[in-house]
User: Fold this.
Amino acid sequence: MFDVNKIKEGFPIFENYRKEAGGELVFLDSAASSQTPKQVVEAMDDYYFKYRSNIHRGGYKIGEQATNSYEEAREVVAKFINAETNEVIFTGGATASSNMLCYALEENIKWQAGDEVVTTIFEHHSNLLPLQEMAKRKGLKLRHFEMTPDFNIDYGNIDALINEHTKIVSVTLASNVTGAITDVKKITEEAHKYGAIVIVDATTAMGHMPIDVKDLGCDFLFFSGHKMCGPTGIGVLYGRKEVLVSMPPSFFGGGMVDDVGMEKSTYSSAPFRFEAGTPNIAGVIGLSEAVKYLESIGAENIKKHTEKLTEYAIKKLSAIGGVKLICEKDASKNIGIVSFTVEGIHPHDVGEILNRNHVAIRGGHHCAQPLMKALGIGAVSRASFYIYNTESDIDKLAEGIEKAKQAFSL
Assistant:
């Protein structure tokens, strides 16, 4: 599919780590933030060093160049997710998208007593907390899909969860803990029977599998750039144009208005009415370059590669005594994440032993505390795979776990 060694050459961190730390970096924490290829940083540097200026304002040469690069990035992102250009809103990240969207929908939906919002036990805090706060403000009932014994969403009571009282259904496309990929189309079809708005948190999945917003049928979808080879501090909120056209902005300032008076103002059309103030211009340009980079590899190829690694990791870690896997074990339904616990050893301690052997994983609750409570544990160790990982990385992960067991044996 692609040459991983050649891929790694495009990520300077691996060579720099080798020089500075004296070892080979095994980076297995892309679900938190992926590494960044050099062309993404170079594209951002070009903006800062060659045409640094604000957008949609200055009529001079570099101002027009900045505006063109920014709007071309919107086209690149729109094509990547099969959206229309005016359906793509740039934000500060998934958390910013989620909060902004909840406030806007709160004002746009005609709420009634007994209205409900449906989500899942798998949600990242950046999706769950804005929903919780909206539910408190509007007096809504917040309901959720539970988990099956094999760490996936339980669709068994979908008919009871989604009903005539449901106004919003907000779900993750892939769990950042178990890796399980959600059957969004199944949920969307049920939700739209009752006219409910469907929101998809695609942060864990974007850039790791093919994503087509029209095929999913969702009304909104959001993601961050930093988990898909892009920079931090940039994200995207997709909104179906039929819904966006009537939705009010929830964040106000310069650049999103047609006319401003002392008592009343009128706002621009979408997407501009949702992009108040000076945006992260370099971040948008960097995100665009990341999308081009991923497209050159192919989303299908990326998914097949991580499937192979996930399958290998499940087999390898299952053979280690005392290790319990907490993940979707069908690699085709897993985004590339294998979480686990090691009997008698805290995930932070596992992570530290691995760190001493140049293996980077994450231990903790992964901003998914309700899921941890449902599992009856406080934290898990998580290994997540991407384009620069190989089976030998997983071998080193397994070796590190064995060393952790030896270190904590009494």
